[in-house]
């Protein structure tokens, strides 16, 4: 790949804020560069940014020295049907990339991950993403993007909570799962495969996320620190447990789609 993306906080600010960017204090810019690890990220991209797809993800795992203890591989189906994989979202980088790292080779890269469209800025792994944006001008395209993904011949991977897990009363757990994966799996007759990903971010991250929620801020400040959390999770081994497929016919009228989503979420945390 000839165009290797570099992270440049100042250029991002100029692109997002225009002329107003000049009023951002230098110490704020320096702090942003620090918390997103601009220099370290760019060093990593110089090292393996020319790679694409699974090669890029393999290089990422090697660079961050991450590994996985996977249980339940025997539960993965090997037929010509398409499935929906759903997982809790404890981290922010290693969990999403880790699921592709695990599932990608098994299904020959035939997987699509529903993610925020910001991740499309990394073209090396863009083929795995289905960009969805539920805010702003692109929100109107959200239903069509999701429908197209579920109607494709790819396996779908989702974090139904949308945001990273939160820590409440000492327990790290996802926010309530959205029902989309239930309704779309029924429509496309896809069985659902539950996955539990074991991991946690720093105490600082959870405190910040809770403060963000208490203040009712629209912008997710904690998201700015996900790169920092990614580096804090270097040299770690994560336990991943794959459950048995749940037939799509399970999700009948005895519960609402929202209740079924909660049921599957509970199943994931019981794995």
Report on the structure:
By secondary structure, this protein is of the alpha/beta class. The protein has 2 domains: 1-50, no CATH class; 65-270, Glycerol-3-phosphate (1)-acyltransferase (3-Layer(aba) Sandwich), CATH 3.40.1130.10. The chain is 39% helix and 15% strand. It has 10 helices and 9 strands. It has helices at residues 9-17, 26-35, 38-48, 53-64, 94-106, 142-150, 180-187, 203-215, 226-232, 257-270, and strands at residues 67-71, 84-87, 111-116, 129-132, 155-158, 166-168, 171-173, 192-197, 237-242. The strands form 2 sheets. It has a 7-stranded mixed beta sheet with strand order 1-9-8-2-5-3-4, with helices on both faces. A two-stranded antiparallel ribbon has the order 6-7. Strand 6 and strand 7 (171-173) form a beta hairpin. Helix 4 packs across helix 5 (94-106) and helix 7 (180-187) packs across helix 10. The radius of gyration is 19 Å and the shape is globular.
Which helices and strands, and how do they pair?
Blueprint: H1 9-17, H2 26-35, H3 38-48, H4 53-64, E1 67-71, E2 84-87, H5 94-106, E3 111-116, E4 129-132, H6 142-150, E5 155-158, E6 166-168, E7 171-173, H7 180-187, E8 192-197, H8 203-215, H9 226-232, E9 237-242, H10 257-270
Helix pairs in contact: 4-5, 7-10
